[in-house]
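Sequence only, no structure available. Ideas?
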Amino acid sequence: MLLFCVIFALSALLTGLIRRYALANQVLDIPNQRSSHSVPTPRGGGLAIVLGFGAADLWLFATAQLGAERFAMLAAALPVAGIGFLDDHGGVAARWRFAIHLLAAAIAVGLMQGLPPLLIPAPFDAMFGLRVVDPGWLGYPLAILFLVWALNLFNFMDGIDGIAASEAIFVGLALAGYLLYLDSSLFALAANLAAASAGFLCWNWPKAKIFMGDVGSGFVGLVLGLLILLAAQQAAVLLYCGLILFGLFVVDASYTLAYRACSGQQWYAAHCSHTYQHAAKRYGHLPVLCACWAINLGWLLPCSAWAFLQPSHALVALAAAYLPLLYLAFRFQAGRNGFVAS
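Reply:
I predicted one. Tokens follow.
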């Protein structure tokens, strides 16, 4: 608890200092036709999350509460923060960002030795038909794909005040709750990521005084993906729990990307057509952020607890969690520029 409070305070202090640096050096997010904000705002505040979480990792490693292998896995996320920092300061070609993302994910997965055992459908088995299967060599590319996708989810979804930091706090604390009696070092890592994100959120709550930027969003997305996979090594059902907790970002980003690709749009081009962006234009940032918290706490957390307590129901819980989110994406016509549901 003490470490949580220290990391929270450190992150909040660092965010304030980074904001001063960004203002002095004109590291600003300038509004354009795709923006969800209307005034130039400092960016790159996610560096405080990187530094705060990194400080916690060093402390855990130095006090033998975190093993060298896990420490190295988390360190693999630092190049992602580095390329994001450069991008926040002037732009980096997409191919170089993707190359660093892929390399970081591959290093982490190599140290992790692929995916943990998976709960997969087995229709002719009892108890809703799930069995534990070792994915073998196939687990390596699947795990890399998962981490790169988790990383980009945060990049895609970090578009209105407070949403990315709130998601990191929610998923981090929920994972910490599940890991409390399973793995003390993973519990500490998840809680400390939430603490660092909460310190940043003090400055990013609507109206935001600073944005997270790519330095933070990519790093946080990769670390959360890693934590979900590491948690699944302790209990296979936690992969489903993690996917459920992450549902708000997974469904919105996936639906939007799929719609844009299927409708012939340049799916890889910058846009502002996510569900949450359409909703923010209609209702404002704060009401949408509060709605996200309500969905997370009132729907996704109970669905993940259902899967955790009844692993044989994990697929049903995942479907139940995602279906209302898919409806919201359809209702707000995610993927269509310039349209908001009435």
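The chain has one domain: 2-331.
Hope that gets you unstuck.
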